[in-house]
Amino acid sequence: FVVKVVTDVVNLFYGNKNSNEPYNGERVIHLGGDEVGDAWNSTALRSWIERYGKFHNQTDLSDYWLTNVVGAKVTLWNDFFTDNATALDPVDTWQVWKFNTSQLVELAESHRLPDKASLLFSQGFFLDGLQQTWADFYNVTFRRDSKSVIKGGEACLWGEFVDASVFMARAWPRASAVAERLWCDDPSICPFNHAWAVRRLSRFRCFMSNFALGHTSPHETTPLGWFQDISAPARFYSFNLIKEQWWCPEWTTKGSGSRNSDEPPVGVQKLFGNLNEL
Fold this sequence. Notes:
Layout (H helix, E strand, L loop, with lengths): L1 H13 L13 E3 L12 H10 L5 H13 L2 E5 H6 L7 E6 L4 H8 L9 E4 L12 H5 L11 E4 L13 H5 L2 H10 L10 H19 L53 H12 L1
């Protein structure tokens, strides 16, 4: 059953390479592999190995399964790397959530990975936590390794914590802070400076609001960091409560009410007035 599911997923995205269907390039699939406990070393699995004598241990079995059954390049979470260090060759990319950035570089520069394997960092980029602001992601100290094993990073948002009703507010624009951290590590181009970053991220918020979502006024932007939103985008405003950090010049209307467009909404002013008193 599992083999059929994995095969169907790979064929869905890439076409069946054994038929006349279009084959869309290199086949790559993310098989998860985090928090699986001792599944590859269960009593039932050990008994099956002993009975049929085809494999010596669970790492032989997992190595065979990844190479011959999946039939695609594989990305796995690094739990599998830690638990089954000999079953590495079929894995193209290890997505890391158990190591910090220093440990990531140390792993990349070690000889534990097979040739051409790469690493993807996610440990500091989980978006589902309400307590984490955009600045927490921006502050992650991410650097290259000398062997170019580290591909980059990826922000993650888990379905057990987020549904469709809050997805946009939880993901954006905080995820853009992850991109800001990853795309440039040259301080002469991208100064490691919150005041500098917040203006860029505010502009990105406006781009999403107007160009991506078609908003025409501030009253339509609740999913992208309106002041009622507790998922941290509103904290953009806390550095300097100025027009440019909440008003998007792309908007064609001011929305309802007689509020002066040069002033933040009353709710925003009250919110940060209370924060300043803390």
